[in-house]
């Protein structure tokens, strides 16, 4: 279950930072609330979004990047249990 707290937001930001992605909060016309520039490893999130929207955007970014991310054991458990739980359910079917 996703937690909409500042600490959870920081955890998600750290996952991207630890994978050498530059996370920017900028203004712009983002239909989905974010933009990924994969060749430069830059992620841009709408700076006017609230904490809940920022968390949802980062969760979606982590889902999109998926296997491209290298995760420490704690982050991996978080991603499997909270960010991508539907992927685990589909594997058992």
Output the keywords:
4 helices; disordered C terminus; 93 residues; 15% strand; alpha+beta; globular
Could you give a short description of this structure?
By secondary structure, the protein is an alpha+beta fold. The chain has 4 helices and 3 strands; from the N terminus they run αβββααα.
**Strand fraction:** 15-25%
- What order do the SSEs take from the amino end to the carboxyl end, as H and E? HEEEHHH
- Total of domains: 1
Stretches where pLDDT is under 50 for at least 5 consecutive residues are 87-93
Helix content: 40-55%
How many strands, what sense, and barrel or not for the largest sheet? 3 strands, mixed
Mean pLDDT: 81
- Helix and strand content put the structural class at alpha+beta
Q: How many strands?
A: 3
* Count of DSSP-assigned helices: 4
Rounded to the nearest angstrom, the radius of gyration is 13 Å
Q: Give, in spatial order, the strands making up the sheet with the most strands.
A: 1-3-2
Alpha-carbon distance between the two ends: 21 Å
Shape: globular
Structure commentary:
The chain is α+β, with helices and mostly antiparallel strands. It has one domain. 49% of the residues lie in helices and 15% in strands. It contains four helices and three strands. The protein has helices at 6-18, 51-65, 73-83, 85-91, and strands spanning 22-26, 34-37, 42-46. Strands 1-3-2 form a three-stranded mixed β-sheet. Helix 1 packs parallel to helix 2. It is globular.
